[in-house]
Amino acid sequence: MPQRPTSRDVARLAGVSRTTVSLVLNNVPDVHISPETRQRVQEAARQLNYYPDAIARRLVSGRTRTIALVWHRGPDRTYRDAFLPGLLQGITRAARHYGYYVLFRPIEPDEPDDSYVELARGRHTDGLILSGPRSDASHLLQLYEDGFPITLHGQLPGTDIPSVDVDNVRGAAEAVNYLLTLGHRRIGMITNAPLEYTASRQRLDGYRQALEQAGLPYDESLVRYGNFDEESGQVAADDLLAQDERPTALFIASDMVAMGALRAIRLRGLQVPDDLCVVGFDDITAARFIVPALTTVRVPTFGLGWTAAELLIRIIEHDPPQQTKILLDTELVIRETCGAP
Amino acid sequence: MPQRPTSRDVARLAGVSRTTVSLVLNNVPDVHISPETRQRVQEAARQLNYYPDAIARRLVSGRTRTIALVWHRGPDRTYRDAFLPGLLQGITRAARHYGYYVLFRPIEPDEPDDSYVELARGRHTDGLILSGPRSDASHLLQLYEDGFPITLHGQLPGTDIPSVDVDNVRGAAEAVNYLLTLGHRRIGMITNAPLEYTASRQRLDGYRQALEQAGLPYDESLVRYGNFDEESGQVAADDLLAQDERPTALFIASDMVAMGALRAIRLRGLQVPDDLCVVGFDDITAARFIVPALTTVRVPTFGLGWTAAELLIRIIEHDPPQQTKILLDTELVIRETCGAP
DNA sequence: CTGAAAGCGCTTACAG
DNA sequence: CTGAAAGCGCTTACAG
After folding, report:
1. Are residues B106 and B54 part of one domain?
2. Chain A, chain B: beta-carbon pairs less than 8 Å apart
3. pLDDT tens digits for A257-278?
4. Which residue, B61, B83, B103, sits at the end of a domain?
5. N or C: which end of chain A has fewer CB within 10 A?
6. Do both B113 and B143 map to the same domain?
7. B106-131: per-residue pLDDT in tens?
8. What residue of B is the nearest CA neighbor of A288?
9. CA angle (B165 as vertex; B163, B168 as ends), nearest 5
């Protein structure tokens, strides 16, 4: 860039002081400056194509007007990528609404888990949205205790850090209730991931709760464990269907895993929905493209992003809401894998 | 955050001047400072948990060490979202490699096309990657002429702004050649979008070139125009297949559009690949989940991101490569929609 | 109503 | 080898 114009240049051209330039351009209230002067300043700024230096502004305000999304890339990479566009859109929309910029900071598997600390301590950002928080709790807690604004996307049990997540228990229960309504009694389940993952545990809990409410026993032989990807779903489903008394319906807590399960079902020569009814979870793009189209539980990615960003910004601006642990509802999307409704 | 420690605090604790603190912590070469002093400074910094203020640093260096991805959201929103995770990963990886942060700035349909100008002029970032550049050429050109570092993801014909894109012509030609090799002579095409979109025009060109090289005439009655989404593909394919002399193969320049086309094919009672062979473009996630799995042309999203970011950073650092218009190769991914290879 | 001065927290010539 | 001072480009009390 060529020499940028500074407020000094504008002041000189308008024949006023830099103070006046700042006052006019920032529209500071309760300060009376003659309309003529205002106009001269504005005219000068326009003529010079002047944009105030964000860096200098930040130094004096002590605020960056930036929030960062810290995106942990783990073994669930492909799985989580499906949520990224929606989440980012929600975050950036809320950010723009409140006048903030968004920094995107993935933490790759080869980086230390706490690499984001520098972002906060070095004043690169006013607050952090952490997605996929893991065992990095000690640095995280320290930061939180030091009063640095943080919001979690997901949950970290045992802390009171503000967080936004989907109501996994309820979403899973709703899916299973739907299957019960359809008359199914032997309902198998494949989790989205090992139970160390909170969401996985919760979706299993939802399954159990729904069965329990219907007076049905929890039968471990009907449950298998997925591991984010298609392959895990194929293996799990195949194992589940190898039993003598097959389930008549399957609740699979991840669409990606369901894709593999559907393959296993197909390879066994079974038809969906005639021989077996299937409900997924997440509503990834592929869910509506496959045949038959997958009935699934939609995760409100945009809403998660918007809510997490709004919550964070309100904390930054010392206006936190009452409720700082937010659970968003899912939506059951009925398509074709359980027959026509 | 509580009172942040400053370099003054570190200096005081270590019993040296702020100059020395800066020199030691930044590892400035060619300056001799006793090992004891160095250690005292480092020890003090650690003890205070000192992180230099990025804002202050930026003010003196005049550099933000940040690049921004400007993401135009148009009518092709869902279509382009499929590329976002890969692209962002490529960009952030390259950025990290060179020591930069990444700002993500979508431009929503309700915003002026040139909203990103403030990002550049206000020194929020050292450079811009523009994805999906449109008619905003005047502001863009002005910025470029002023010497502000810019890289395009995609192409803007008629300018010499550095850009990174996929070789659409070649990718399309390769797909069609594959169909020719399989023995097809009546090959229909559905574009990914209207021809105003450069990529759309180029993919059509690739189709024509391949036919021409094979000595086959270009037959307009075999070509239809998609419009990013499934619906457009369904309409286009249905129209194409309504003809007396049906094509035996379809090259569809977008997987998303192909999803709709496959539905139309299915609804007409035709079988893929037996009655009709199909090749897509993009390799979205759904491509490998549908049955039969879609043979398609893979777009190297990670590579596009990495290359665009690297190119931009080299420009920022006054070390531009010879070639500033970069075309990346696609890869034909053979799956099941044209029969087993 | 407007201006001179201090200060945000660093880095970097410049002296010593 | 180390320190005092200037300066990056703004905003904000404080005077007048």
Report:
1. no
2. 122
3. 999 999 999 999 999 999 999 9
4. B61
5. C
6. yes
7. 999 899 888 999 999 999 999 999 99
8. B286
9. 140
Between strands B150-153 and B127-131, the pairing is parallel
Q: How far is B52 from chain A (nearest CA, A)?
A: 6
Statement to judge: residues A26 and A118 lie in one domain: no
Are B285 and A284 a contacting pair at CB < 8 A? yes
Pairing mode of beta strands B325-328, B163-166: parallel
Residue B245: DSSP 8-state: S
Same domain, A147 and A269: no
Banded model confidence at residue A114, pLDDT cuts 50, 70, 90? confident
A28 CA, C6 C1': Å apart: 20
B104 closest CB neighbour out of A104, A284, A290? A104
Contacts of B118 in chain A (CB under 8 A): 51
Search chain B and give the residue with CA nearest A106: B92
Q: What is the CATH number of the domain that holds A107?
A: 3.40.50.2300
In B, which residues are within 8 Å of A123 by CB distance?
4, 51, 53-55
Q: Is position A37 within any domain?
A: yes
Examine the domain organization and report whether A89 and A150 are in the same domain. yes
Mean pLDDT, all residues of chain A: 93
pLDDT digits (tens, 9 = 90+) for B161-170: 999 999 999 9
Assign A59 a pLDDT band (cuts: 50, 70, 90): very high
What positions of strand C are covered by protein, i.e. any atom < 7 Å from a CB? 1-5, 7-13
Mean pLDDT of A161-174: 97
Residues B114 and B263 in one domain: no
Return positions of chain D under 7 A from a protein CB: 1-5, 7-13
**Do B174 and B290 have their domain in common?**
yes
Q: Residue B35: exposed, middle, or buried by beta-carbon count in 10 A (0-12, 13-18, 19+)?
A: exposed
Task: Return the pLDDT at A341.
Answer: 43
Structural domains of chain B, count: 3
Residue closest to B283 by CA, chosen among A299, A277, A286: A286
Structural domain span for residue A214: 168-299
